[in-house]
Amino acid sequence: MNTRILPVSADDPDSAAVRLAADALRTGRLVAFPTETVYGLGANALDAEAVSSIFTAKARPASDPIIVHIDQVSDLSVVAVDVPLLAAELAARFWPGPLTLVLRRSQRVPPVVSAGMATVAVRMPAHPIARALIRLAGVPVAAPSANRFARPSATTAAHVLEDLGGRVDFILDGGPATIGLESTILDLTRATPTVLRPGAVTLEMLRAVIPDVQLVARYLQPDQDGIEAPGMLLRHYSPRAELRLFAGELARVIPAMRQAARDAAAVGRRVGLLVPAAEREDFSDLPAVVRLLGDDLETISHQLFDQMRALDRDGADIILMHGLEQRGLGLALWDRLVRAANGQVIWCEAEESGV
Ligand code: TXA
Ligand code: MG
């Protein structure tokens, strides 16, 4: 298959390129498109065969369900049934935007979309190109992140091409995704609404609407069994290089990372460091490739997957990074880092006083 990249401006989302892509979607083909979170690999959600081809293109296990994207709230009734009032309230507050709701699946959505489960995950994205594409296609669009399975999500058209070139008909290039981390997933089919994946609609924001909202923090107990949602497997979002994640007090974390960098380099490993820009001087003298991430949570999230991929291209064998605060968007960042690190966190605790 020949992959065509079509540049599109967010100021002119109804362009001929988007109409061409919408026609392709309607006829069962695959289109990668930008959203405000990450790029999606889209297919007509009502066409089981088209959705199956997503799994093939991504090398994604059939047990991992896919999010359905809609363009207007009224389309919820096409893809879901028994929609609770709370869903309408959340939609009014957070849609269009980076929030995905898990609801009961309508018969019109083929089981393959949801890996055979009775539920369906639904989101109305905010990106003008995504919205125009869905509207012009006239069908709900099933779309996982447009990366090969378990790789860092694609946040640019170049990432999509890197992972899926020759496996997708069209890539709409609308520039880098602004948020850079995937949407928050909130399950409304349980007795208590539960966040399955933290994202840019933060736990704090959800708590203002749902005081008892819960979080399934799988990454906090990586050894416990019982997978909460198919596809929530631990190792995910991973660069090819091994990612080693440090946590704790910065005054201890930085020396520990410096030592780890020297130790790895001493045994011939190519070391990559992923650090906030303000820490450049702390690491600049090491035998390592240092890539900078900006300094606030928004910028770090926006750049994370791009810089992970860049370190892979640099040929890094091991990447060292430290965590940041676990509040707000920081919780989403922490979730992706722990999973990219396969659950291995090196805690650099403060020494106990009086010892
Ligand atoms: O921001 C996003 O959500 C992006 C853009 C393209 O919208 N999409 C995305 O899709 O991240 P994906 O497939 O990479 O991740 C979706 C996750 C999967 O890990 C899957 O387990 C979960 O959503 N999911 C999908 N349907 C579900 C369902 N019915 N119940 C529980 N989890 C579900
Ligand atoms: Mg994904």
Structure characterization notes:
By secondary structure, the chain is of the alpha/beta class. It is 31% helix and 20% strand. Strands 1, 2, 3, 4, 5, 6, 7, 8, 9, 10, 11 and 12 form a twelve-stranded mixed beta sheet that branches. A five-stranded parallel beta sheet has the order 15-14-16-13-17, with helices on both faces. Strand 14 (271-275), helix 9 (280-283) and strand 15 (289-292) form a beta-alpha-beta unit. Helix 1 packs across helix 5 (128-137). Residues 220-232 have low confidence and may be disordered.
Low confidence ranges: 220-232
Shape: globular
Query: How far from one another are the termini?
Result: 66 Å
CA-atom Rg in angstroms: 21 Å
Strand composition percent:
15-25%
- Main sheet specs: 12 strands, mixed
* Average of the residue pLDDT scores: 93
Number of helices: 11
Q: Ligands bound here?
A: threonylcarbamoyladenylate, magnesium ion
Q: Report the order of strands and helices.
A: EHEEHEHEHEEHEHEEEHEEHEHEHEHE
Structural class: alpha/beta
* Count of distinct strands: 17
Which percent bin holds the helix content?
A: 25-40%
Compile the SSE list and pairings.
Layout: E1 4-7, H1 16-26, E2 31-33, E3 40-44, H2 48-58, E4 67-69, H3 76-79, E5 80-81, H4 85-94, E6 99-105, E7 119-123, H5 128-137, E8 141-142, H6 157-164, E9 170-173, E10 184-187, E11 194-197, H7 203-207, E12 214-215, E13 242-248, H8 250-266, E14 271-275, H9 280-283, E15 289-292, H10 297-313, E16 318-322, H11 329-340, E17 345-348
Parallel strand pairs: 1-9, 2-9, 4-7, 6-10, 11-12, 13-16, 13-17, 14-15, 14-16
Antiparallel strand pairs: 2-3, 3-8, 4-8, 5-6, 6-7, 10-11
Helix pairs in contact: 1-5
Magnesium ion binds at residues 144-145, 153.
